[in-house]
Design goal:
single chain, about 200 residues, two-stranded antiparallel sheet, 7 helices, 4 strands, about 55% helix
């Protein structure tokens, strides 16, 4: 998605078009969709883990969340394969809506698990359900971090990007000015946060 001038640095007009603003008065611009396969894989993994939950924990049919994810993800994949341009606003709003649905489904699953604690005497079943929800929780937070940090994945790739939400070790002391976090970096942040219940090597700003 990044466009550059002859000197290799993107100018301000090109930078604005990448973010969907365009020249003054031109209105929102469509951009070539960048495939974020790691994030898509994280969403699919949540759907699979949720489908493996016991019927009394999940909300609705087991594969319902996977179907909902497919409805949102399939148009994105088609746009990538056909190299069509899509409004960045549409992509961001769609991502936020899908993450909201996934978060609500996970919240319902956790509430159902808590309500069944007094009736469920099978320790293996409790551990199985808890681990599945734990995995969903880590992936969900990783996706939220990836989507909201610094205005989104596309904006973080811009040369003029400034830290606003997280400070990764690679960004401390100017070690690598061109480094930008990827999905697996946020997955690690989500894992350490869920496990240690406190910030670890990546500081929230």
């Amino acid at each position: 998605m990044r466009t550059t001038n002859q000197n290799g640095a993107g100018n301000s007009d090109e930078h604005e078009q990448e973010l969907g603003t365009g020249p003054q008065g031109a209105g929102p611009q469509k951009v070539q969709v960048t495939p974020h396969w790691n994030a898509i894989g994280g969403l699919v993994a949540i759907g699979v883990l949720y489908a493996l939950l016991p019927d009394k924990i999940s909300s609705g049919p087991r594969g319902l969340l996977l179907v909902i994810e497919g409805v949102f993800i399939l148009p994105f994949v088609i746009a990538v394969l056909t190299r069509r341009s899509v409004s960045p606003v549409t992509l961001r709003v769609g991502s936020m809506i899908l993450l909201g649905i996934v978060t609500a489904a996970l919240g319902i699953g956790i509430v159902h698990m808590i309500l069944t604690l007094k009736k469920e005497l099978n320790g293996f079943q409790l551990l199985y359900t808890g681990l599945l929800l734990y995995g969903c929780n880590i992936l969900m937070f990783a996706l939220w971090y990836w989507e909201i940090d610094g205005g989104g994945p596309e904006r973080r790739q811009q040369p003029a990007h400034q830290l606003s939400d997280f400070l990764f070790p690679q960004q401390m002391g100017g070690i690598d000015e061109n480094w930008a976090p990827h999905f697996f970096d946020y997955l690690y942040v989500a894992f350490t946060g869920a496990t240690a219940y406190s910030p670890t090597d990546t500081m929230p700003l």
